[in-house]
Amino acid sequence: MSKIEKISVALPSEMVAAIRAAVESGDYATNSDVMRDALRDWRMRRRVEEIEIEEMRRMVQEGIDSGPSLDGETEFARLKAKYAVTAEAK
Fold first, then answer.
1. Fewest CB atoms within 10 A around its CB: which of 18, 33, 50, 68?
2. Residue-range definition of the domain harbouring residue 43
C-alpha cells in the first residue's frame, strides 16, 4: 500500500457542503474518500486530454504527410460540376 500523507486544503463553503452531503448520504465513507475519488477523476480527465492532443497532432501530421493541400473553392466547384453532369445523365 502506498504511503498516506495528510494535507490541508482550503475550499469554498459550497464545496465543503457537497463533500459533507456525499458522506452523510452514504455515497462515501469519509471526506477523504470523496477527495480521493475527485482526484482520480481529475487525473483521468487530464490523461484523456493528453491522449486527445496526441491524436490531434497525429492527424495533423497525417494531413501534412498526405501531400499538398487543395483549394476548397476550386474543389467544390469541380465536384458540383461533376455531380451536375451525373444528375443530368439520369
1. 68
2. 13-89
